[in-house]
Amino acid sequence: VLLMEACRRVVGLPILIIVLVFLAYAVFGKYIPGSFGHRGYSVKQVVTHMYFTLNGVFGTPLGVSSTYIFLFILFGSFLEKTGVGKLFIDLANALAGKRIGGPAKVAVVASGLLGTINGSSVANVATTGTFTIPLMKRVGYAPYYAGAVEACASTGGQLMPPIMGAGAFIMSEFLNIPYLSIAAAAIIPALIYYTAIFSNVHIRARKKKLRGIPKSDLPSVREVMRSDGHLLVPVIVVIITLLMKYTPLRAGFIGVVAVIIVSSLKKNTRMTLKDNFNALVEGARGGLGVALACALVGFIVGTSSLTSLGLTISNNIIDISGGNLVLTLVMAMVACLVLGMGLPTTANYIVCSTIIAPALIGMKVLPLSAHLFVFYFGIMADLTPPVCLAAFTGAGIAGASPAKTGMTATRIALASYLLPYCFVYNPMLLLQNVEIVDLTVLVVSALFGVITLAGSFEGWFFRDLKTYERVVFGILALLSIYHDFWISVAAMAGIVVVMFYFRKSARDDSSSEDLEGASA
Asked: What pTM does this model have?
C-alpha cells in the first residue's frame, strides 16, 4: 500500500489504476468465464508472491533500475547542470537555424540530441519546447503544428541510442544479450524515424514558404564548439567505454566522473559544490520515479507469472489472428498503444514486453524484433490520442488545441508507425543476419519511403500536388517500405521518375508565370 501511494505521488494515477486492475484480476479471476478465468488466489497468496519471490516487486526491473538506470540518470543530471542542454540548442541553431523552416529543424535536432540522455518524452518537450516552439511560431508555423513537431522530436529521443529512455538496459536483462547489441540494433530505425520527422517539417516549410532565423541572430558552429564543445566529451567517453566492452554500470560511473572533470576545464561550465550537490539531488529524484515505476510494474509482472496471464493473452491473440502475422502485429500494436497510455518509458516497456511480446515470439518473430516492436509502440502512445502526454505538453507550451496537436503529431509520425513492421519482416534493419547489399537497399528504400510519404501527406513536392498525385505518391511510398526486395527496388525507381516529373512541371509552371509577368 505504501508503495502504491508513493508511486501515485511521484509517477501519477494511470500506472496505479492499471496495477489495481491486475491485482483484482489475480484475486477475482475465478469469477471470470472462458480462457481468461483462473482458479483464483487469496490476498495472502498474492502478497506472498509479490513480496517474497523474485517474480514480483523485487524482480529484474527493480534490480536494473537500482544499478544501470540509476547511474545513467545521474549521468544525465550532471550533464544538464553543466549546461549541455544549451549546447544542444545552440548547436542545432548553428546547424539548421538559418535553413528554410529553421526553428522546426532546430527542434528536431536539439530534441534528438537531448533525448539521448533524457529518460522522458514529456520532460524533453518541457525542456527544449520552451525555446523551440515560440521560435517556430515566430517564423510562421501554426501553434498546433509547432507543438506537434516538438512532441514528435522529443518522443524520438526515447528511441535513440545510447540510453533509449533506460529501456535498453531492461531489454538487455530480459533477453540476456549484451546492452551494446540492443543499442546497435536501434540505430538505423532511430535515424529513419528522424528522417521522417525532418522531411515533414522541411516540406511543410517549402509549401508555406517559411524562412529561417536571420543569420545575424545565430551563433556559428565554431563559436558554439569553442565555447561549450568540450561538454560532448563525456558522452563520447561513455560510448567508447561501452564499445570497449565495459559493463554499463562502469561506463555510467566513468561518465559521471568525466562530466565533473571535463566541465572544470572552462570557467563558464565549471560546476560549483552546490551544482554537484544539486546534480546528486536531481539524479536521486529522477531515479526515484523510475524505481517506483519499476517496483509497481512488478505487480503486473507478478500477476502475469502467477496467473499465466501473459501466456493466455498471447494464445488468444494468436487464435484470433488465425496465425496471420500481419493481423497479430496489428493487434499487438493496438494493445501496446493502450497499455502505454500515461506510463513512463521503462514501465510501459516492461508491461508491453510481459503481456504482448510472447505472442509475437510465438509467431516465430525474432525475440529482439518482438521486444523492439512493443518498445516502439509503447513509446508511440505518447503521441497517439486520446492520452498523448508529449503532444499535450507541446500544446500547452504552444497555446494550441491538445486534440489538434495530438492528431497532427500522429500524422507527422505516421511513417514511424510503419517502421516496427519493417524490422519485424526485415531483421536486417536491426543489424540481424546482415547482407550488405540487401541492407543498403533496405535502408535506402525506407528513406525514400518516409520522405515520399511526407510529401504525400503534405500535398507538396516541388509544387502543390493534385489528389490523385498524392495517392500515387503515397502508394509508391508504402511499396518502397514493403519487405519484398524487388518490389522495394521497383517502387524506388517509380519514386525517382515521379520526383523528376514533379520537378520538371514545377519549373514549367514557374517559367510560364515569369512569361506572364513579363508580358503584363
From this structure: 0.84
